## 1
Amino acid sequence: MTDNQVVQTYIDAWTHSIESISELLAPLPGDSWNRPTECPGWSVRDVVSHVIAMESELLGDPRPIHSLPSDLFHIKDELSRYLELPVDKRRCHTAPEMTSELEYVIIRRSRALRNAPTGPDDVVRFPAGPFGYELPYHQLLRLRAMDVWVHEQDLRRALQLPGNLDSPAALVTRDLLLEGLPKVVAKLAGAPAGSTVAFDVTGPMEFLRTVRVDAAGRGSLDSSISLGPDVQFTLDWESYLRLAAGRTRAGQLPPGSLKVDGDTELADRILDNFTLMP
């Protein structure tokens, strides 16, 4: 696959997911916009506001002028405060106002992506005020495809309307999340040299991956089967996503959705550090 094909793959994945969000919201009753999601302090409306705000920033739109109330207890640091401002600004918006703004930002952003002269490896800036950073253009698109799809799934769980767990953006997300597993096992959980940890994930995005820790304590990831791993996690894809995206803890998953075999102390350390969203 050429670099330009990779870019188009990420754009197509983003398009599929954000348009799915728009279709999901179109028939939604007004009271459903206030349902809580697994994002702390955020309702369905708030998650949609966040998606709109991020895409608007990428279009170069100015941030709204707004003062946050002092009683938002889910605001823990300056980054969460930065993300909250455009969300809180829209809390008084009606459902038609929200769907119209989302549709408009999709049209504008799709046009901008289609006409962008940027090359796959050109360095661009992710515009997040003091939290912005530079990265290759294809990586920015990859992150946006993942972020929008993860929020699509936040909305689907809140609304009890499951779907798209095997969409193009789900595949992008799976591969991106897998890249963080060696760090979780070897560095954050402190798995000893020579350890092997297997992840057997079932469902619409099934996969089997093994993290191996070498003599120097570095972790690597492969798809080969390890006989008698030190730890093996068996879980469904949606539970894996919820853990990896920091939406829940292992003890809060539905009974039977996670099975752990092997070294329980190491397994607990891995699960305690399992948030993989970059």
## 2
Amino acid sequence: MAIDFDWNDIPLILALARSGSMSAAGRELGVDGSTISRRIAAAEKALNLRLFSRDTTRWQLTEAGQVFVRYGEGVYGSVQSMLLASTREAESLAGPVRLSAIDFLFDHWLVRHLPAFAERHPEMEVQLMADNQNISFTRREADFALRLAQPVDDAAVLMRRLGDIGWAVYGAPRFAGVPREAWGRQPWIAHEEAKAHLPEMRWMARLEPAPRIALRVNSLSTMVHACRAGAGLALLPCIVGGDEALVRLSDRAEVFRELWLLSHRDAGAIGRFKVVAAWLAQVHEDSRDRMCT
């Protein structure tokens, strides 16, 4: 087994076999003829084979060299095809892109922007995965993720802080006009107790008088629907402010949370991923006022 053989010498051997001349092979490959000669000698030594013999006019393949070239052309052609296909894939604006995010970011923000994106990039397939659990970019569980906190370390993750999302108090129309000092006396919709560490839950815990929790949910989108139905007041992302079934009671955002865009470190080298990353950043920029005020 010729473990010292340099596979980069294959195109040099093939070029010399075609031309029969060191100088001609050098011109074809754009290298000096002496470099060709030195690399051929190194290849023969590594293979422990004589690939070429030289007569008075040209370099001729030996029988072993003929076998090498026959297989070498196939190997080199396959490598070229592999590189070409890989380059095309990296530059292509077609194919699937998987995006993970908490459900409300899809339901109340991103989906409204998808038709315009699909019109510009009809060959791309966006896959939305409603999930807020930690994912592994090392294992390629998603291509992008939107998260409301800076993530834990992942050697393969690239993190970008897009900005902030504000939270304000909302209720059904029957709660319109309830003053701030009376909020604590109203029924409230809250997250499950396991999420007591969230900034919006800590804000609610500081209300005086302490609010009566009428309903607990484990989905922010469910909280929005329950608030619309009149189940109680809720601290919701400001981006739901255009909902006609909700009345905003806060005159300012009560809580802010960071929005992070995560991707695999290799995403910047793949065309469709670069397009999606730029699109997400632009959509957030265009929505900044709605998200924070």
